[in-house]
């Protein structure tokens, strides 16, 4: 069995903002390929006299203050997790002076004055007592399956309710970079084992953590009771309306209800009942497809993959008898229970199949739950799911069935300014804002398909095509779509789309107002009457990203541009207990020339739109999984793909240990770029950043 891939096949492939290696390994060079959405689905410009007024959409005296999200009813609920708990005003310990943006090649983790940072866990750290310590010269699939995986993205630290000093850290592992993981000579001689190691480095890690005192640094517990690795070969159950469909059956699984593994898990969310959701994003790159139109809409081609996993495991090629449907079994939102290492994780077909960035849940006033999700591809869509059943506080078993049945919608945005004012320059229209109304268009409602010519199963498995037919608005790569736990307003990170308004592609519209949108933007969406189940909404653009010092098309809700930190390629979102928005970036080095960052954005009051940079990650890395425990004085980030663009023998980063013997072993350990979870905490000794 031979793998065809050689080292550095990505050179010359990139056309986006990222390093060539990131394009290659993370997304399978999606930017260099044709746009997947070739539908003629066009933008419907709002006509003021036919639209609901902004006032009626917003509602007066709406249940804005009603219970939105009411804490996590797990036996180990977090005590200060701003993702899921409404916090009282005050209590934030995160006072900081914005750091200056960091030049893109600087190999340092940079935090504000008065803060320090430390890695909690790194690629290869052993989770179990039987798992060996990491040694880059002695890798195997078996070893990797007992160690922390590669390229951690989504992150949560779920603090145990009655302890406050224990909890579980949950991270997913999006993809692997073989150029950094393996000695090239070893790789050439061991490609099949390298592929199996990569499979074991994907998925999830759940690991127990402890700390000596509230606010102090966390450390992980090797051999913790709840520790778990989920990989590309872990058994998942498929549930929901499409479970068992003929379109999900393979020769290994004639039931269409059991699939091995989860792939390319990007962002995610923690539910109010304490489970973790994660999106299977650029899953297409792992599969040799059938050449069908439906495969093409997902970017799956009948071509040998660069990863070559089809040479190791037959299911990764539709050419192998019995596996033409294997790729249909990926592209879902998965739900795992981090409190029970024996639980079977689930893929939820009710939420549709696309390149899910992640999913975030809000509980509606009537106790149905709503899950929002973006499809991260140029010109793809924003979705929401509304459960059929209602949330029951304290009934965890019941709540874990909520994402199994319900209605699925896709968003259509309408602007309220005249078309000539949306000219691609991102100049603010005469009414003072990019804004308007919108509709959640039903794809599945009350168990029935709302799309002519498509069954429910087809709508859920080929959701992108259903969105095309429904007339959804083509967006500039929706990443995190996350409701504020304080106000219920929804924030949509649109990371970039350099093909917007170019020849043959969708033109600008008020919700995507910039030609060749290199730096991205963020939309704020308010459901009608602040009812999460509403089918109508209003929206406005919170910020049009970029470096205001050099880019006139930037916009910060009217906040003075000279007072903001430059920001580009917004990706993951989080909130602190006061409802400030935190935005991590993925692509700043290639756009505005700075290392990727974590920024705080004020949403309310006179400083609305103020962007303040909190940290910068090292050369080659993107900032992921931000988690703000402000009442603890802590911020956590996943530092993903540090040193990307370098190689095993010529590293450009030595994060997080900064012992400059990368690629070598020392006392059985390796030092060099290792994707890691980092905690940034208040440094009571005032040492500031240590690197
Ligand atoms: Fe994995 Fe959409 O970023
Ligand atoms: Ca407007
Ligand atoms: Ca992302």
From TrEMBL:
Residues annotated as transmembrane: none
InterPro entries documented for this protein: PhoX, TAT_signal
Superkingdom field: Bacteria
A Pfam family: PhoX
Protein name, as recorded: PhoX family phosphatase
Lineage: Bacteria, Bacillati, Actinomycetota, Actinomycetes, Micrococcales
């Amino acid at each position: 069995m031979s793998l065809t891939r050689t080292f550095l096949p990505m050179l010359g492939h990139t056309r986006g903002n990222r390093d060539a290696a990131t394009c290659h390994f993370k997304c399978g060079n999606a930017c260099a390929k044709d746009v997947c959405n070739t539908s003629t689905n066009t933008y419907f410009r709002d006509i003021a006299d036919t639209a609901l007024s902004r006032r009626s959409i917003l509602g007066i005296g709406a249940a804005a203050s009603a219970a939105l999200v009411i804490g996590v009813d797990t036996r180990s609920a977090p005590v200060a997790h701003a993702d899921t708990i409404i916090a009282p005003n005050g209590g934030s310990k995160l006072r900081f002076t914005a750091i200056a943006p960091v030049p893109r090649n600087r190999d340092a983790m940079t935090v504000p004055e008065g803060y320090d940072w430390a890695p909690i866990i790194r690629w290869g750290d052993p989770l179990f007592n039987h798992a060996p310590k990491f040694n880059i010269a002695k890798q195997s699939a078996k070893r990797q399956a007992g160690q922390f995986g590669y390229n951690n993205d989504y992150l949560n630290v779920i603090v145990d309710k009655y302890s406050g000093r224990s909890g579980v850290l949950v991270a997913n592992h999006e993809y692997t970079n073989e150029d950094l993981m393996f000695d090239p000579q070893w790789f050439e001689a061991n490609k099949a084992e390298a592929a199996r190691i990569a499979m074991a480095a994907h998925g999830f890690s759940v690991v127990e953590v402890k700390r000596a005192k509230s606010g102090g640094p966390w450390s992980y517990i090797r051999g913790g009771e709840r520790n778990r690795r989920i990989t590309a070969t872990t058994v998942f159950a498929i549930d929901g309306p499409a479970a068992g469909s003929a379109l999900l059956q393979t020769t290994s699984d004639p039931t269409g209800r059991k699939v091995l593994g989860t792939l390319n898990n990007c962002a995610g969310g923690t539910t109010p009942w304490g489970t973790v959701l994660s999106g299977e994003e650029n899953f297409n790159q792992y599969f040799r497809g059938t050449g069908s139109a439906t495969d093409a809409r997902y970017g799956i081609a009948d071509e040998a993959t660069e990863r070559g996993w089809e040479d190791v495991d037959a299911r990764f090629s539709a050419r192998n008898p019995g596996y033409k449907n294997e790729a249909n079994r990926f592209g879902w939102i998965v739900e795992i229970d981090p409190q029970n290492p024996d639980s079977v994780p689930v893929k939820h077909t009710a939420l549709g199949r696309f390149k899910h960035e992640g999913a975030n849940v809000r509980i509606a006033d009537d106790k149905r739950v709503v899950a929002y999700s973006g499809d991260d591809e140029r010109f793809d869509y924003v979705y929401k799911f509304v459960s059929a059943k209602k949330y029951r506080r304290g009934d965890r078993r019941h709540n874990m069935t909520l994402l199994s049945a319900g209605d699925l919608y896709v968003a259509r945005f309408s602007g309220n300014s005249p078309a000539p004012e949306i000219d691609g320059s991102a100049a603010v229209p005469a009414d003072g804002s990019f804004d308007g109304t919108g509709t959640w268009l039903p794809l599945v409602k009350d168990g029935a398909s709302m799309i002519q010519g498509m069954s429910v199963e087809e709508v859920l498995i080929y959701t992108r095509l259903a969105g095309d037919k429904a007339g959804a608005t083509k967006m500039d790569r929706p990443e995190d779509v996350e409701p504020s736990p304080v106000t219920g307003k929804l924030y949509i990170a649109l990371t970039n789309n350099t093909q917007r308004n170019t020849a043959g592609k969708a033109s600008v519209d008020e919700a995507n107002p910039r030609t060749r949108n290199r730096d991205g933007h963020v939309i704020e969406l308010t459901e009608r009457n602040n009812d999460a189940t509403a089918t109508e909404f209003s929206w406005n653009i919170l910020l049009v990203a970029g470096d205001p010092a050099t880019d006139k098309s930037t916009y910060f809700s009217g906040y003075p541009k000279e007072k903001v930190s430059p920001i580009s390629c917004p990706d993951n979102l989080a909130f602190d207990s006061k409802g400030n928005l935190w935005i991590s970036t993925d692509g700043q080095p290639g756009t505005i020339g700075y290392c990727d960052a974590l920024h705080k954005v004020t949403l309310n009051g006179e400083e609305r739109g103020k962007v303040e940079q909190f940290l910068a990650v090292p050369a080659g890395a993107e900032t992921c999984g931000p988690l703000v425990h402000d009442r603890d004085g802590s911020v956590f980030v996943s530092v993903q793909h540090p040193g990307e663009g370098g190689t095993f023998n010529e590293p450009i980063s030595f994060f997080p240990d900064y012992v400059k013997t990368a690629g070598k072993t020392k006392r059985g350990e390796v030092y060099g770029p290792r994707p890691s979870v980092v905690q940034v905490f208040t440094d009571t000794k005032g040492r500031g950043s240590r690197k």
